[in-house]
Design a protein that fits this description.
With 218 residues, this protein is an alpha+beta fold. It folds into 2 domains: 141 residues, Jelly Rolls (Sandwich), CATH 2.60.120; 69 residues, Orthogonal Bundle (Arc Repressor Mutant, subunit A), CATH 1.10.10.10. The chain is 49% helix and 22% strand. Helix 6 packs antiparallel against helix 9 and helix 7 crosses helix 8. It is elongated and about 60 Å long. It starts with a helix and ends with a helix. 28% of the residues are buried.
Length: 218
Amino acid sequence: MSETAELRARLIRHFPMLAERADELIADSRVRRMPAGSVLFSAHQPCSGFPLVLEGSIRVSKTAPNGREILLYRVDPGESCILSGSCLLARSDYSAAGIAETDVEVLVIPPPLFNELMLQHEPFRQYVFGMYAARLSEVMELVEEVAFRKLDTRLAQLLVHRGPIVSETHQKLADELGSVREIVTRLLRSFEQHGWVRLERERVMVLDPKALADFARG
């Protein structure tokens, strides 16, 4: 199978609503392959297209002037970045950054074709608006957690959700929770003293998910 045929197959597998436009998309769009840690876009940068993720995971986060970062959402295969869509529709620059968490492959739809699909291709339009609804729900949950839930219960919930092996540094966990490493480390050591987790180098082993879940529920 040729490289173009393989790309077409992956595109249709992850984005079946675009099957009838697959050949046009491949001809008019560009493929970006970037290693883990690469910056796909930064705050205040103009949007060059609408990325369809074919492989890998992208972390979209916002950084405050003091350097603290909070995770907004992740973009996995079969998904796209709502921030890119909003920038294209509003003709504005990015307000957050997108970083490749793993090696990634994306098909970037150019702005003119994105606008055409939004106007003329109902399946694509439904996909984009459905994605907006899902991401809005996630962001509302994030706002609720940050505004109303204590950091210790949020950390416990994150560990239960991501366990039993959470392969992240304390700094990355702090970034996801909108906190600082020192506080997260102190809470993790408290959890370890209770026998709920075991701390290892750059990972946390969840030993008692039920106790953590009970604690998270208050």
